[in-house]
Design a protein that fits this description.
Length: 260
């Protein structure tokens, strides 16, 4: 289905991004992986994608937290893959603190990666998509792109921004064969969330699995984690013809979180 398509997935060395990269590759797309981590482990992930799915997979070690970095990921990806047909903006970080004591440096870092990088990669990728008349931009926002929680000022502001930015890009490119949508996951048990579970376990003096259940029961009515593979399934769907008219929307996979 995605043979001859080239996909860049930011933050794809772990968690949701890795599952999306593998999901797109399983349908034939060539892949650029991006993100941080142990070089040998990343190389293993890259080679596994090539061997398992018979596609090309490259890894670009680019820090997206500066405008130059984010834009250069797209130019480097275009060099190695020949195009960027599918852009999945997934890289993200978290920091929790009350607003009055939220460190300025953490605010800047979360906004730079979770929001500004999405703008920069999108702006850099659009002209070639417009020339081709086909493109998919998929932004991994969050339930926190639709509703808020305490102590997440930067994250909630950034993710609401991503939902808004997705709508603007959708409108500007409507009818051009380019769609732009956001996916809004609830809790997915990745390293990003594991850190929050560990902090909750410490703060509440309970074991890790009890803390994981506490985290779910506060927000996610299904009391089950969303899996990275389920997010990947939604991203793959957004690349199919069935989703040609799906643009400017946000798709929640949150076990009922935002239905309340
Ligand atoms: P993760 O920590 O497992 O993965 C984050 C990825 O981003 C990693 O590959 C990391 O190396 C990369 N990254 C971090 N800083 C980077 C930088 N400066 N430049 C380039 N790459 C960088 O996290 P995850 O849970 O898989 O999160 C992926 C996305 O999903 C994030 O945008 C997150 O906000 C969103 N999300 C996660 C959940 C959840 O419950 N896990 C819920 C909703 C939304």
């Amino acid at each position: 289905m995605l043979t001859n398509k080239a996909a860049v997935v930011t933050g794809s060395t772990s968690g949701i991004g890795l599952a999306i990269a593998r999901g797109l590759a399983s349908h034939g797309a060539d892949i650029v992986l991006n993100g941080f981590g142990n070089a040998r482990e990343i190389e293993k992930l890259r080679v596994n994608i090539e061997l398992e799915f018979d596609v090309k997979a490259h890894y670009l070690n680019v820090d997206l937290s500066t405008p130059e970095g984010a834009r250069s990921l797209i130019s480097q990806a275009t060099d190695v893959l020949g195009a960027v047909d599918i852009l999945v903006n997934n890289a993200g970080i978290q920091h929790t603190d009350p607003t009055e004591s939220f460190p300025v440096e953490r605010w800047d870092a979360v906004i730079a990666l979770n929001l500004s990088a999405v703008f920069h990669t999108t702006a850099a990728a659009l002209p070639k998509m417009q020339e081709k008349g086909w493109g998919r931009i998929i932004n991994i926002a969050s339930a926190h792109g639709l509703v808020a929680s305490e102590h997440k000022a930067a994250y909630v502001a950034a993710k609401h921004g991503v939902v808004g930015l997705s709508k603007v890009v959708a409108l500007e490119n409507a009818g051009n064969g380019i769609t732009c949508n956001a996916i809004c996951p609830g809790w997915v048990r990745t390293p990003l969330v594991e850190a929050q579970i560990v902090a909750l376990a410490k703060g509440s003096e309970v074991d890790i699995e009890t803390a994981a259940k506490m985290l779910l029961s506060e927000k996610q009515p299904s009391l089950q984690f969303v899996t990275p593979e389920q997010i990947a399934g939604a991203a793959v769907f957004m690349c199919t013809e069935a989703a040609d008219q799906m643009t400017g929307t946000s798709l929640s996979l949150d076990g009922g979180w935002t239905a309340r």
